DNA sequence: GCCGTTTTCGGCCCGACTGTTTTCAGTCG
């Protein structure tokens, strides 16, 4: 079934190509305008008929027909024609940050550059700066963006990697008796550079193990060897590695390919490494590997580097945060700002999932692109929350509460986005940076610390603003920021969106040492977004976060007590 | 191409930032 985001992306690229090919400016605007509204549509577009589609703002008779065409055929005839008349390299250039359709049009039609490689050369030899509208700084930023792009190709975010790995696993199961996902996916890395599978047959083959794989597995014969197949799956750019393992070796191989090198080579008191111990004959489980090595079991997520060896000395695996230990959801959006579902829908679904509270934190007034809340809207939302809180508890049962929050923009000077009397009307405040992301480290630190020192700040939202594989985020001094949070009793968010996973899990231990609590926040813009907390939990466990230091593992009563005490200071 | 009417066609749009400009165009969230 065609998803809403697929329809949006199809119309978006069509609009871009139309602009590239000199279509009427207002016709193009109609496309982007329609995209703007259908992106907000909460139902399934694929299920709507012509009449229902034209009810959507920005969608007229023509656009409704286009959407139906995408739903039935998977594409647009118009788009196919545009694509046929555009070099592939030009389309690739859309991925470069900082240049848009207009500049790409100049590059292609006036300068004659139709691929990223030629563009890079023109920037490196400085010739691009001679073109009107381009200068030295633009050249520099294009080069930086290309370098970033190159460093990201062939990598996947954990959500995509996990999904693809499961598809491949199912496919491989047709050919092998046993197929296990190993490597980075099993370790729950936030970015995955290669997919690794271990396979074995019921009996050993004489003539090669991978001969029967179908065409969806594209082998690179130069990189492969008799026991290791290397290549790609369909047109995915990420590297794929399949290792054939004899049945009796499976445990040992699964163990060493699930951990990273630093984890395997750390020595115990007897001078043995885990790598060596795992080879011992007769071991039946990974638990036994650690037992024989002389320490408690370490979960696969934590087999990155060697911090887990120290962690396990003072903590237990049962102390690690889990989905089941979460009691509420703290950072969520509704239709009051840029969310797809109403306050009531968000609350009802949260209650259905068994949580005790929902923190609504819509965007604040300066975030106009996201329909941030003007003060009157804030008051209106608070009134609705109070009504809903009565309604949702009317039938008795487990108490449930919507908490009045806001995701306040951190303004350029580090202040929050409302006057004090409005800030005081919230139960809690998530403070995040959304604008002016181009900052030097000192400037970013100063801006963040000022926000952290604001007595109304409860949680620091996505501390670096990074978007994995697409935006680096502004540079910060992690220790300085975490220390400031410790000094001011501010909680740090682990934004659980697979695009962010920010705070980076590598800083969880430092935060815990300083006594800073962390909150696993989905930043949900729709009901299903709550499930992103699974990614947040995965990286939180990877970094060794314990339930007792997880903010949204507090019960409703403890959360209310905390927020009341915090407000009273 | 869509919308909202001045119902048959004219106007359409969000603001901050950046870089390349000598007063503005392009990009982005």
General description of the model:
The chain has 569 residues and is of the alpha/beta class. The chain has four domains: 86 residues, DNA polymerase, domain 1; 66 residues, Orthogonal Bundle (DNA polymerase, domain 1), CATH 1.10.150.20; 158 residues, 2-Layer Sandwich (Beta Polymerase, domain 2); 245 residues, TIM Barrel. The chain contains 24 helices and 14 strands. A seven-stranded parallel beta sheet has the order 8-9-10-11-12-13-14. The protein has a five-stranded mixed beta sheet with strand order 2-4-7-6-5, with helices on both faces. A hairpin with an 8-residue loop joins strand 5 and strand 6. Helix 1 crosses helix 7 and helix 20 runs parallel beside helix 21. The chain is globular. The N and C termini lie far apart (53 Å). The model has no long low-confidence stretch (mean pLDDT 92). The chain binds one DNA strand of 29 nucleotides through helix 2, helix 4, helix 7 and helix 9.
From the structure above, extract its key features.
569 residues; alpha/beta; DNA polymerase, domain 1; Beta Polymerase, domain 2; 4 domains; 7-stranded parallel sheet; 5-stranded mixed sheet; 41% helix; DNA-binding
């Amino acid at each position: 079934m065609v998803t809403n985001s697929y329809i949006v992306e199809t119309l978006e690229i069509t609009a871009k190509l139309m602009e590239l090919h000199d279509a009427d400016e207002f016709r193009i605007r109609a496309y982007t305008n329609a995209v703007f509204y259908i992106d907000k549509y909460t139902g399934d577009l694929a299920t709507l008929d012509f009449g229902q589609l034209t009810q959507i703002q920005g969608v007229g008779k023509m656009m409704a027909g286009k959407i139906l065409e995408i739903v039935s055929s998977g594409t647009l005839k118009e788009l196919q024609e545009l694509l046929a008349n555009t070099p592939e390299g030009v389309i690739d250039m859309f991925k470069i940050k900082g240049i848009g359709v207009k500049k790409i049009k100049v590059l292609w039609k006036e300068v004659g550059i139709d691929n990223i490689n030629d563009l890079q050369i023109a920037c490196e030899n400085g010739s691009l700066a001679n073109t009107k509208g381009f200068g030295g700084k633009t050249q520099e930023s294009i080069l930086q963006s290309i370098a970033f792009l190159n460093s990201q190709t062939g990598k996947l975010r954990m959500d995509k990697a996990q999904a693809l790995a499961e598809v491949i696993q199912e496919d491989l199961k047709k050919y092998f008796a046993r197929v296990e996902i190993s490597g980075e996916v099993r370790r729950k890395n936030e970015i995955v550079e290669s997919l690794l599978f271990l396979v074995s047959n019921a009996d050993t083959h004489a003539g090669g193990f991978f001969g029967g794989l179908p065409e969806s597995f594209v082998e690179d014969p130069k990189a492969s060897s008799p026991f290791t197949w290397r290549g790609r799956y369909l047109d995915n750019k990420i590297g794929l590695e399949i290792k054939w393992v004899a049945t009796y070796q499976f445990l040992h191989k699964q163990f060493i390919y699930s951990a990273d090198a630093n984890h395997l080579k750390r020595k115990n008191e007897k001078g043995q490494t885990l790598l060596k111990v795992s080879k011992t004959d007769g071991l039946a489980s990974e638990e036994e590997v650690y037992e024989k090595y002389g320490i408690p079991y370490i979960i696969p997520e934590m087999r990155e580097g060697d911090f887990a060896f120290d962690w396990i000395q003072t903590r237990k695996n049962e102390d690690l945060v889990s989905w089941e230990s979460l009691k509420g959801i703290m950072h969520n959006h509704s239709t009051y700002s840029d969310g797809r579902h109403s306050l009531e829908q968000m609350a009802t679904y949260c209650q259905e999932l068994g949580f005790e509270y929902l923190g609504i934190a819509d965007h604040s007034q300066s975030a106009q692109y996201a329909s941030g809340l003007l003060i009157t809207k804030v008051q209106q939302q608070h009134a609705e929350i109070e009504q809903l809180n009565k309604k949702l508890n009317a039938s008795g049962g487990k108490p449930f509460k919507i908490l009045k929050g806001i995701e306040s923009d951190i303004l350029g000077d580090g202040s929050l986005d409302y006057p004090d009397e409005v800030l005081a009307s919230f139960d809690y405040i998530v403070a995040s940076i959304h604008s002016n992301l181009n900052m030097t480290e000192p400037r970013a630190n100063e801006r963040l610390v000022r926000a952290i020192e604001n007595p109304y700040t409860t949680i620091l939202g996505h501390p670096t603003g990074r978007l994995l594989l697409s935006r680096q985020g502004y540079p910060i001094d992690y220790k300085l920021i975490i220390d400031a949070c410790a000094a001011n009793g501010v909680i740090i968010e682990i934004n659980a969106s697979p695009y962010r996973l920010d705070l980076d899990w590598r800083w969880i231990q430092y935060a815990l040492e300083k006594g800073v609590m962390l909150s696993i926040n989905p930043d949900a813009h729709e009901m299903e977004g709550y499930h992103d907390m699974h990614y947040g939990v995965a990286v939180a466990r990877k970094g060794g976060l314990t339930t007792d230091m997880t903010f949204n593992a507090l019960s409703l009563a403890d959360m209310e007590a905390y927020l009341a005490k915090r407000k009273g200071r």
